Amino acid sequence: MLFCYFLFKKLITLFVIFNISETSCVKYFHKRSLFILPKHQSLEKNSFSINNNLISRTSSYNNDNIFNFIHFNTSETTENHLTNTNQPQSPTDSCGNNSADDVLCATNEHTDTSLVSSLCSYDYGPHLVKQIKSRLDHYEFLTKKFKVNPYPEVQPSNDYSSFSKVISENEILTNGEEVDRFYKVYGRVESVRFDGHFIDIINCRRDFCEYPTSEITLKGLRKDNKIQLMFRLEEQIVVDQGRYTNDNEENVLGNNFACNQNQEYPCKEVVDLIDIGDVIELYGNVKKTNLGEISIIPKKIKFLSKCLIPPPSKQHGLKDVETRYRLRHLDLLTNELTRYQVLKRFQVISKIRKFLTEREFVEVDTPILQHYAYGDLAEPFETYYKRLNEKVKLRIAPEFSIKKIFMGLPLTKVFEIGKCFRNEGSSLRHSPEFTMIEIYQKMADYNTMIKLLEDLINYLLSYGFDEDSVCKNVFEIKWSRSRFSELIKEYTGIDITLYSKEELMDKFKELLSKTDNTRLEQIESSMEVITWGSISNEIFEKFVVPNLKYPVHVTHFPTQVSPLTYFEGEFSKDNDSNSFEKMFSHRFESYLGGMEIANSSTEQCNPLKLSKSLLESDVFEGKGNNIKEKEVDREFLNAAFSGMEPMAGLGIGVDRLIMYITKAKNIKEIQPLTSLKRL
């Protein structure tokens, strides 16, 4: 066997060097029994328009290999894959016109790959173009000869059996035993083996109700996510044509519209038209193979969706990171970890809603397009509103909008889950488009929000996790609380309460000179607009946050970087720029795994203090000392002066929370779709 393998590699190299056609290569190895062709299959010109197993099963591609013949003449179970050469070919060769290789890409006059190519963003290369042509041939053959609609209209049905049910009800069978228990299942074809005798399909019908969190782990989906089909190629099989008769109006408008048209065909002919990636429906009885594999023996088949572009191979998958993000549907099909992370995202959001609604919180929604985009120092996305004839911004945070409606509603607890936007660069933990939860409760303070956040996170981490849980040890670490100024003193040795703005800047420069000269230059160039609070916050972000690897609530941030939060003390009546120096607010940030996942505070409801702190903060556009120059939301201030009830708010970054739960290293991994530059 080892000798045959090296002989095979050597001869393949010679074929490539001397530019011998792929057809000759196939014939050569067929004569020497190094791989097996079906007896009925010919290698003459145009023979692949119907029974082209070799090319049709090339549904897994790996551009790094010249050849990937896997269908060897051995007793081992191997997948029926064949990948053609990746060597450069002339346009004439790739199209099969007047070429020695046209046998491999022969198509009938109705098959048009230009349509498929025009809809795709990638140059698949000649070898994949041939596979696409072959799949289009299968589509043509299904529709012309078998009169099958490969994309039928279907109705909801409760007749389908889950893979877990099929497996659990037949585990007691002995090896080789066959029973007359019939099941109806459907799934996506994952692999074809032994010339179509065995086909594996993966489950397509996982609902949240039947897919508890305990069944998803970092190791991937459960074993019952896949089931084996065992076709008896020498027998007949019923093909559901996926069409409805419309002989009379009563029949069309009756129950189930009409009866499906079913015809019997040789099983071998039907199986030859199945490609990896197809979605098919099967009805058949069960047998446990001699190797103990529970299999369904199909008696009836229905094509639900034909896959016309070969999916990536199961072995190699999509390795290029950009390709994974750009072709996310293929990544979800082939990467179990990606499926786990995206499913976990949806479940976490669902569980958050359940947690809050059970505690009498009411979900609200507010506009995404706003005149004022408040939220840290972020730059907003802008667009043009034709009806208003003015520019508007995509919200950075929904805080102002929620407070304005919350003030007038007879509700005590509200929340919103929605998209927010920041027109800035992306990183492993930052995305210009992200999902946020804003929670507000009247007659509450920031301590109430701390308790709510801890209960929520513990609820999410404890729900349905099994021995493979990535967060099973979270309860061994208790949440701690530390003041903002105390953490800075602990990690830098600087007591910020002892220094003025200028003195604190000198201390900051001294720290930066040892680590980051570039940041030092940026600070010096903008020193006139830097406040005592923002310098303190820079020190915290640079030297404290990287050390917060444990669950911790950091409390009492400087008032100058927390303009909407409640703070102790009074401001001076004159317009002194230092009136808020060394004042701290009732605000906290929560950190898990070195990431900030939540931000909360007791809200400032005193309109006089609120106006003063807004004018001195750095979070609004403009540099003036009045409301108009600062571009502050005056409707929000009007609501504040109308009498806002005492309240507390909590904002949670959903993406980062899911990153922590799934241990994802990149925020893009847990986003279903990401924004990339167009090709």
Automatic annotation (TrEMBL):
Keywords in alphabetical order: Aminoacyl-tRNA synthetase, ATP-binding, Ligase, Nucleotide-binding, Signal
InterPro entries: Aa-tRNA-synt_II, aa-tRNA-synth_II, aa-tRNA-synth_II/BPL/LPL, Lys-tRNA-ligase_II_N, Lys-tRNA-synth_II_C, NA-bd_OB-fold
Any single Pfam family the record assigns to this protein: tRNA-synt_2
Single GO biological process annotation from the record: lysyl-tRNA aminoacylation
Keyword set includes Lipoprotein: no
GO cellular component: cytosol
UniProt key word Signal: yes
A single MF term (Gene Ontology): lysine-tRNA ligase activity
Aminoacyl-transfer RNA synthetases class-II family profile domain boundaries: 348-672
Name by which UniProt lists this protein: Lysyl-tRNA synthetase
Organism whose genome encodes this protein: Theileria annulata
